[in-house]
Design goal:
rod-shaped, 4 strands, alpha+beta
Length: 151
């Protein structure tokens, strides 16, 4: 007995090599357009982690200032490291500037800057520092004394 010849219906012949090539080229063009978005997202997610660390350092420093007596609140610069020893530490420079406005009021500026590999601060300093994690906090501190309008 002879095998029956294979017959195909009209329109069911499959894809041609040209159609497949055109589809692949279109997919490459779309992928090339989307790739920068992934790079952008990864860059800003990593800087968000650095900024979160800077905010945590700022919060700790502000809590320390609250716990200290009014007269011991003075300007300082210090370096702190946070992170897991296995994955690596991120080091931050904490710059505290205290200006005596009056005898009972102090203006406080707290700047927390992530340390880059350069000694000048590089990309982490200046007006674009927010993007890389720099945090600046302005606050006031007053002594605990009875004011002139009390009683």
């Amino acid at each position: 007995m002879e095998p029956k010849p294979i017959t195909t219906l009209k329109g069911q012949a499959g894809f041609t090599l040209i159609e497949t090539t055109i589809a692949l080229v279109l997919m490459m063009i779309v992928s090339a357009g989307i790739a920068p978005l992934f790079i952008y997202a990864m860059r800003y997610n990593s800087t968000a982690a650095i900024r979160a660390g800077a905010l945590a350092i700022a919060q700790i420093k502000l809590e320390q200032l609250r716990a200290e007596p009014f007269n011991s609140c003075v300007s300082s610069v210090e370096t702190l490291s946070v992170g897991d020893p296995t994955s690596g530490f991120q080091t931050y420079t904490v710059q505290l500037t205290v200006v005596n406005t009056t005898t009972t009021l102090k203006d406080i500026t707290l700047i927390v800057t992530p340390d880059a590999r350069s000694t000048t601060g590089g990309q982490y300093a200046g007006k674009s520092g927010w993007m890389y994690g720099q945090v600046t906090i302005y606050t006031k501190r007053t002594s605990i004394t009875a004011g002139p309008n009390l009683g």
